[in-house]
Design brief:
alpha/beta; 6-stranded mixed beta sheet; 8% strand
Amino acid sequence: MQTTKQWNCMIASWLVITIALVIRLYISSRFLLDPDEANYWQWSRYLALGYHDHPPMIAWTIRLATEIFGQNEFAVRLPTVLGLGVTSIYIFLFGARWFSCRCGFHAVLLVQGILLFNGSALIATPDGLLLPCWAAACYHSAMALSHRSPGHWLVCGIWFGLGLLSKYTMLLFLPSLFFCMLATPFYRKQLATLQPWLGLVLGFACFTPVLLWNADNGWATFRHVLYQGGMGKSNFLTIRYIGDFLGTQALLLSPLVFVMLLTAWFGRIDSNRLKPADVSFLRWMSATTFVVFLALSLHVRVYGNWAAPAYITAIVLLAALYSPGRVGTRPRSTMFWNLSIVTAYAMTIPLLLQLVYPVLPLPIKLDRIARETTGWDQLARRVDQALRTMPNPKNTFVFGLRYQLASELAFYMPGRPKTVSINRWARPNVYDYWFDDGMLRGKDAVGIYEWKGMAEQLAGLFERIDPPQEITIYRKSPWLGRQLVHHLYLIRGYGFKGGLRWQPRTKDDIRVTPEVTSEG
């Protein structure tokens, strides 16, 4: 039976989640798409069972949102903004069911202040859809293990499958859960029951569309993932990336939260406070993923967002150990927890405001938000003006030498044209599946690129080109005045001869598939 204090904590938790959701929904419509977001929006225009870089969930959900709310930034970001809301709900349920409503409340309060989670929500990427799937799968597997509830295994399997459709990092859920059950006597017997394995089969059944697409496309996505993981790198071990990984995690979580996290993972926890089985689950379902990416950072660069799922159950563990809703009656100061909360919010709020208005006095080199979300509408207007000056605008295609530029132009140019990425000198990506030389040969083109010397190489793809035109885009900072954000080059080409698709530098490049490298 719920006490008054428990009801108050439950109401406060829902209030925090709702207010945070409304704030993010408002912010999501106030700044331009960054290049990766524009790229995922492009995917939604070419619906498929899979894509070169990631599974299809990000494209499917963006397509649904834009069909309902129109082609705008709010709709593109809506799925991931809602995703963090779902993540927060499951974190609260986890803390409340296993420990107390007060513990769940403090876990939710911490989640809203962590930069990593806010970034995953407000920048539309697969991570924002992976997090709710991971949180839900953790919750339902925990309920299945602790309450011997077979139905939870099936629900866990569905969320696991949805996670696989969102991002391949979801695969790390399996070893995390398996070794947790194997290492915990209280859970081990359930490995011999049918229900966990039925959930696993159900999860992989959800993943079937991706397998079908890859079977038809030379397993391109798995090749890409292996390449990202360092397959083919000459140096197997290096220390050049590990500091970057640890430092990035500390900044994205906030340094004090990161310190608490390491202490909770690797420090001694009094069995009189938390049940050993509970500690085992929360540690295995978080530290395993962190350790995998820590080990990977000894081989290749690991991006800061990759380890995000590791912190879902870790936050519940932190709340149970250190927050005012901690488990156990032994007197214990919560000063470090309170300071960690304040620090996390103090680091996150200015950056959220920076998305809307340049409140921080940062030079452009240090202001990634400005570099990635400023000026794309201006650039699109300049390219549209150039397109209108071409001899036959309706038979002229628009391109970028990076898929990010091509995608930004597609979103912000009037009429949202089907733009092209010339990948010949870059890397394979989704544009290689949408366009080939035969579709464009003989046409004129207007394009954008970043490196001045590329005009000479582009000249070989056309009968002739005009001299490149420099385009500079500025933003006005209240602190530093007029700042140069983008220095780009616009080029007009006539009579395209071919050469769209990526050409590998070596024949043994793991990314090589006939579908990507063949000419149309």
